[in-house]
Design goal:
The structure holds 2 protein chains of 2 kinds.
Chain A lengths: L6 E12 L2 E12 L3 E5 L6 H8 L7 E6 L2 E2 L4 H7 E4 L11 H12 L5 H7 L15 H12 L6 E5 L7 H16 L3 E6 L2 H7 L2 E6 L2 E6 L1 H10 L13 H9 L6
Parallel strand pairs in A: 3-8, 3-9, 6-7, 7-8
Antiparallel strand pairs in A: 1-2, 1-4, 4-5, 9-10
Helix pairs in contact in A: 3-4, 3-5, 5-6
Chain B lengths: L1 H20 L1 H22 L7 E7 L4 H12 L3 E4 L5 H9 L5 E5 L5 E2 L5 E10 L3 H22 L6 E8 L6 H32 L1 H6 L5 H31 L7 H25 L3 H18 L11 H7 L4 H14 L7 H21 L4
Parallel strand pairs in B: 1-2, 1-3, 5-6
Antiparallel strand pairs in B: 3-5, 4-5
Helix pairs in contact in B: 1-8, 2-6, 2-8, 6-8, 6-9, 6-10, 6-12, 8-9, 9-10, 9-12, 9-13, 12-13
Chain lengths: 255, 368
């Protein structure tokens, strides 16, 4: 491994404007090879726009983005070959079975893939012959991730992967994401959920109004807040409502 | 290059699979044109009715001929088409199958001869291809004349019938209907199909998901074109089956010319759908634009009624519409046995429209 491979994504001075409005305002950051990098922020912070510019889905107005040493603006096609994308509110073709969908996407990448193995990886073996429109929310998200893995990508982009899922499905997806990370894929994800970010992400960028306010590991971010003398009223609770919910309904996935 | 084609084929296969699982799409694509064919075909294949449609041209100024005309008009032997102006017009109508024959009372027919009796021969024209209708018209007329001849009481009948065969294009109303409805199939497939499909895919985000892969817009377009080509050829083939079985359609030309012509028609009409659907962001935009383009073509290109019914000036304008050369060409191949090489002007017009519409389509195409 050469030195370059420590960093897989480099973003320098990234800007997106819509008319006079600056949606993404001069972002600089790097994503390290093999980590899960989280982008957090309120709605409208520019998370999705940032992601889509890195994914070569949206024109870059200013700045440079490199993925694995490839300039995204100059070689969008080369970049698409080595990344996997799970879009927010993704839709797939109807009237195609999951197996056929996987074959279609593999075909679009010119990749050889065994649909059944891939579907087994995301626990959808039983649904290989189902249509996407008949899947539950959690199943859809898992399928969406499977479809993003057909080309064995170096980087996987997940845009709010657990939004709208029930607690069981969320936990299940977290396991899946951790498992994909273990296989050596770098993951860049956005989320609204702090527990999710804290649990999954190696490093976090917090965005607001098109700018990155801070980047660090979740631990360091919490520590620096505490170091600044932050304290909240301590109520020693050994459990919260979600724990109750999971305890009562079980961890087992409901599809 | 192979990699490029493989991607196109993978997507075309997916589209085709989906199509054959969509019952509504199957109905509208395959059965709808067939229903049209059954309805319009039955309305226009009235060849087996008993009365004969003829044009009656009276070039004689005699009172006998006028009296004879009146008698024919009041008799129920013939259905006389009163819109016919002259022989050339009558021949054209006979070529289109509007009338079965032409009855001409030549100048001098019914003139009084030396014995003070009317004399002369009627001329009937019939299509060379259908001598039986010529024979029938002649014998019906002879039956009428026999009465006169008997009254005149001459050993040799004074009044007679001459038959003359003429060669015309020999098209039946059904031929016009069939070519028009084939044109309708290509039109609805190309325009309605794609102009609905692409905005819908933009709305659901399916197109966005495809764009996240290395698929290029040219591959997307080619994959769709292949898929529409397949569906179009099946649809046209079904129409030929129905036309042959139910309406006794017989193919005069060669099937290769016909297949090529259909393919060219699909490619051109696909371009219209692509321009509309590629540009439109939602179904409202595309629906408005589709109607704007499709309806004039439907009513002015000879789809539902033949262009020869239009006034001259309108005929010459509508001759330049994109669907007109497609329909005319189909008819010339199917009914007149021409080959694709003999259809230069039609081919040229299709080529021009194809280039123009694709130039527009590529410019206005949007992924989202």
């Amino acid at each position: 491994m050469n030195r370059m491979s420590d960093t897989i994504i480099t973003v320098k001075g990234l800007v997106k404007r819509y008319g006079k409005q600056v949606t993404v305002d001069g972002l600089d950051f790097e994503v390290k090879n093999g980590e899960i990098f989280g982008i957090l922020g309120p709605n409208g912070a520019g998370k999705t726009t940032t992601l889509e510019m890195i994914e070569a889905l949206r024109p870059i107005d200013a700045g440079v983005v490199e993925v694995d040493g490839i300039d995204v603006a100059k070689h969008p096609h080369k970049v698409k070959q080595i990344i996997g994308i799970q879009l927010q509110s993704t839709s797939f073709f109807d009237k195609l079975t999951l197996r056929e969908q996987i074959n279609l996407f593999a075909g679009l990448y010119g990749a050889e893939v065994d649909p059944d193995t891939l579907l087994a990886d995301v626990q959808l073996s039983d649904h290989a012959k189902s249509y996407v429109e008949n899947l539950s929310g959690g199943q859809k998200q898992r399928f969406s991730i499977a479809a993003a893995l057909v080309n064995k990508p170096r980087v996987l982009f997940l845009d709010e992967p657990t939004t709208g899922l029930d607690p069981q499905a969320r936990r299940n997806l977290w396991d899946l994401i951790a498992q994909i990370k273990k296989s050596g894929v770098t993951i860049v994800m956005t989320t609204h959920y702090m527990d999710e970010a804290e649990l999954l992400c190696d490093r976090i960028a917090i965005m607001d109004k098109g700018k990155i306010i801070t980047i660090d590991t979740p631990k360091n971010l919490i520590k620096s807040l505490l170091d600044r003398g932050f304290s909240k009223p301590q109520v020693v609770e050994q459990a919260n409502l979600e724990d109750v919910f999971i305890d009562l309904t079980g961890k087992e996935l409901r599809d | 290059m192979m990699a490029y084609i493989r991607i196109v084929l993978a997507l075309a296969k997916a589209y085709t699979l989906r199509f054959f699982r969509d019952k509504a799409a199957l109905f509208f694509t395959f059965l709808f044109p067939l229903l049209f064919l059954l309805v319009f075909g039955s309305l226009n294949s009235g060849n087996d009715d008993i009365s004969f449609d003829v044009a009656l041209l009276n070039e004689s100024k005699t009172s006998f001929s006028e009296q004879f005309v009146e008698q024919l008009e009041s008799s129920e032997l013939f259905e006389i088409d009163s819109n016919v102006n002259d022989l050339a017009d009558a021949r054209e109508r006979m070529g289109r199958g509007e009338i079965d024959g032409i009855i001409k009372l030549p100048s001098g027919f019914g003139e009084i001869n030396d014995q003070g009796q009317p004399d002369g021969d009627i001329v009937t024209y019939y299509q060379k291809a259908s001598p039986q209708s010529g024979q029938t018209i002649a014998s019906l007329l002879e039956g009428v004349l026999e009465e006169y001849n008997r009254q005149l009481g001459q050993p040799e009948p004074l009044l007679g019938v001459e038959q003359e065969a003429i060669e015309t294009t020999n098209l039946s109303p059904f031929d016009y209907v069939f070519a028009g409805l084939l044109g309708f199939t290509l039109l609805s497939l190309g325009i309605f199909g794609l102009a609905n499909q692409l905005p819908a895919e933009k709305k659901t985000g399916a197109l966005r998901r495809l764009k996240a892969s290395p698929l290029t817009s040219s591959q997307l377009i080619l994959a769709n074109m292949l898929y529409y080509m397949l569906v179009g050829l099946i649809s046209v083939a079904l129409m030929f089956v129905v036309a042959t079985w139910i309406f006794d359609f017989s193919m005069q030309g060669d099937w290769i010319s016909l297949a090529l012509w259909v393919v060219l028609g699909i490619i051109m009409m696909f371009g219209f759908g692509l321009a509309i659907g590629g540009w439109a962001n939602n179904e409202n935009q595309s629906a408005a634009l589709t109607n704007l383009v499709a309806f004039p073509l439907m009513f002015l290109s000879g789809v539902f009624f033949p262009r020869f019914l239009m006034p001259e000036w309108l005929q010459s304008i509508t001759g330049f519409l994109p669907l007109t050369p497609v329909i005319d060409g189909l008819r010339m191949i199917m009914n007149e046995g021409r080959t694709i090489i003999e259809l230069g002007p039609e081919l040229g017009l299709i080529a021009i429209w194809t280039v123009v519409i694709y130039a527009i389509a590529v410019r206005v195409f949007r992924w989202q």
